[in-house]
Amino acid sequence: MKKIIFISLVFGCTAMKSLAQQDSTDLLSQLERTSKKGTDYTIATFKSTRLITGHSVENIGKGVLDVRILHRFAPFNTGIYNFFGLDQASMRMGFDYGITNNLMIGIGHSTWQKTYDAYFKIKILRQSTGEVNMPVTLSFVSAMATRTELARKDTFNITWNNELPRRIHTSFADKTSFTEQLIIGRKFSERFSMQIMPTFIFHHDRIDSINFYTKNRDNLIYGQKRKNTFAIGVGGRFKVSRRVSVNAEYYYQLPDTKPNRKFNSVSLGVDIETGGHVFQIHLTNSNGMSEKSLISDTDDKWKDGYIRIGFNISRVFNVGKHK
Amino acid sequence: MKKRSLLLIIPFLILPFIFISAQKVYTKNGAVSFFSTSTLENIAASNNQVMSVLNITTGDLQFSVLIKSFHFKKSLMETHFNENYLESDKYPKAIFKGKISNLPAVNFTADGNYSVEVSGDLTIHGVTNKVTTPGTITVKAGIVSAKADFKITLADYKISIPGIVKDNIAKVIDIKVSCVYDQKL
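^ Those are the sequences you sent over. The predicted structure of the assembly is below.
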């Protein structure tokens, strides 16, 4: 009898000791298991709000002002006389602002066609795991671009098709185009992200001068409205290191909707990120930097050596009130 | 005779479970915040969803801190913190497993402030280091709360800072911990 009590006492004590030791380790994992899993939102699908020239699924945060200065140089094949294109630059200066974490607006001005543009981007779905399982991030971009460049005087003196070129009167609406874009993006792994961008461009603008479409002379009719363009973009990034990634972006315009003598935009780039700066350097065949110019107004082909060097500089400032 | 002896054993078998389990307190919303002070920039972030367990009988103390729950004033900083510095996809949690080394100094049944020393293993960014820090245990109306301030060196946890921002981020980071253990187990 005494023996049994003694044995059970020893057992009790050892059980107590072992429980005291091991239980607290288990307890933490037990707590984690019983507590709500929560939703784990994917962050940093891309480093910047632009993949190269076009939009990425990323938004800037609430109260953040992003000042962006973009340059595209002249084509590389202009040779050493033109310092491989670096003697001429086309630029866009823009300001982006985050109204909420999911809604941003932006304005900009480009050298090319003296274009003013404005847009908003809204994040509709966020890629996440956990309680809410969402495989993709979905964003919507709506942009408008208005060109304000006047026809150069000398263009009036050229005749072709037995018709004297003339400048027709165009209103603000006749110079404006609208771009509606859906962006479906997914961060497949820490390093690799991809996105698809179905895009519709409403060309409201009329052709008012040959200056804008020098390469399309044979197809140019004054006062004509351009056909609307439907394009599908594909883009991706691969992170080389924690702060450097390689990006690619391609917009395919459906053949029926592609403007004459315009080409599809192909860009390759590198993102370098340090603190509040993102520096993007790239090779592209596009000159325009507003959404509409990029997708439907690319005049040159890579194949012919019309490759431009370009770079984007982005600097963010926190201007919203701190909580 | 046999039956009686069996009945006698039962309390000894059950007792440890009851006794032990009554001695643990925990919280799911403890607070951890950190501060980096440098000549160019001050950086601060806080996390109010920290899980912590304190075993009153043994002095075992543990923390589980979800990295993504740290929030910054500047949203881009939060992104960089997760993506470039702490790599929260690879290392989602910081864990501390330690012990109060002078447990007899604390009387959990009487109200008051007690100075304690805590030592244990702190794992951040997949790297584990020994940490020892003074702290305070406060008992008020039967509820235990704990506070501690300590410093960690980023290099110890293999958190590298690129040269271009080395003046913006301190090499040694101040950490503040504050938990109210209002749940019993």
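Residues 2-21 of chain B form the longest helix (20 residues). The helical segments of chain B are 2-21, 75-85.

Shout if you want it in another format.
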